[in-house]
């Protein structure tokens, strides 16, 4: 089995559903798993160590395992059938290890909260992994490392915009639309029309952050992330 890490949570530009991107710890390949909105929010909250006023479902399960002294030893993503991924939780009870069927999204959310390793079987990787250094005529697979890094940076910028206290709801909505435009060019880097739209989106984003105090967190995030995004997208 191969240990995996959560690289990012990003929006699928075709289905408009969230996807969690996992990469192996050696940066050789990654897998992309479609998940639900609530599970995406839960995973993002765990990544950033965010806690609400009351425990959410995955917080509750993590607390329950701890209180009952049933350590989660690992989660294993092991199957893929008809575009559905399968996982199980490895829960230790004394000398017995129970393998409990789970959706990968729930397993990942629990693993992040309990600091538990995430594993993928070699068979699953043969079915679903995309080599990061692979070259292909398919633009969605070529330069996979750039795609992965771009998705990570755009997701970070999207989170900064979504949580900004310096932007109105209208400005947030418009800015997030521009991020979605940039996400499209990640998967279709040779589309000239998308490149034009992306350049327009960048101008709109620049105009949005220009009217915000320079020390605002969203402005700092923009200045930190945008240069690398522009470089990766060749804009």
Protein described:
By secondary structure, the chain is an alpha+beta fold. It folds into two domains: 130 residues, Bifunctional nuclease domain, CATH 3.10.690; 89 residues. It contains eight helices and eight strands. The chain has an eight-stranded mixed beta sheet. A hairpin with a 6-residue loop joins strand 1 and strand 2. It is globular. About 4% of the residues have low confidence. GO terms for molecular function: nuclease activity. This is BFN domain-containing protein. InterPro entries: BFN_sf, Bi_nuclease_dom.
CATH class of the largest domain: Alpha Beta
Average pLDDT reading:
84
Structural class: alpha+beta
- Low-confidence segments, ≥5 residues, pLDDT <50? 134-143
Organism: Gloeothece verrucosa (strain PCC 7822)
GO molecular function: nuclease activity
Domain BFN: 1-132
Pfam families: BFN_dom
Primary descriptors:
8 helices; 2 domains; 235 residues; Bifunctional nuclease domain; alpha+beta; eight-stranded mixed beta sheet; 8 strands
Topology at a glance:
Elements: E1 2-11, E2 18-24, E3 29-34, H1 37-47, H2 57-67, E4 72-81, E5 84-93, E6 96-102, H3 104-114, E7 118-120, H4 122-128, E8 130-131, H5 144-162, H6 169-187, H7 192-210, H8 217-232
Parallel strand pairs: 4-7
Antiparallel strand pairs: 1-2, 1-7, 2-3, 3-8, 4-5, 5-6
Helix pairs in contact: 1-3, 2-3, 5-6, 5-8, 6-7
């Amino acid at each position: 089995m191969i240990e995996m890490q959560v690289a990012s949570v990003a929006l699928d530009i075709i289905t408009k559903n969230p996807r969690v991107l996992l990469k192996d710890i050696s940066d050789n390949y990654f897998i992309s798993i479609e998940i639900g909105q609530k599970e995406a929010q839960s995973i993002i909250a765990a990544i950033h160590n965010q806690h609400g006023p009351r425990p959410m479902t995955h917080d509750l399960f993590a607390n329950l395992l701890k209180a009952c002294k049933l350590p989660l030893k690992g989660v294993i993503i092991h199957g893929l059938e008809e575009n559905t991924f399968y996982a199980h939780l490895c829960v230790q009870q004394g000398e017995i290890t129970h393998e409990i069927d789970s959706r990968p999204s729930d397993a990942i959310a629990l693993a992040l909260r309990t600091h538990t390793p995430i594993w993928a079987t070699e068979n699953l990787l043969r079915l679903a992994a995309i080599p990061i250094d692979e070259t292909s005529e398919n633009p969605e697979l070529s330069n996979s490392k750039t795609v992965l890094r771009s998705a990570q940076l755009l997701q970070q910028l999207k989170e900064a915009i979504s949580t900004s206290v310096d932007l109105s709801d209208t400005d947030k909505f418009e800015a997030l639309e521009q991020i979605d435009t940039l996400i499209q060019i990640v998967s279709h880097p040779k589309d000239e029309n998308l490149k034009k739209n992306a350049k327009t989106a960048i101008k709109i984003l620049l105009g949005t952050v220009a009217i915000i105090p320079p020390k605002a967190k969203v402005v700092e995030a923009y200045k930190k992330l945008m240069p690398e995004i522009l470089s990766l997208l060749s804009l």
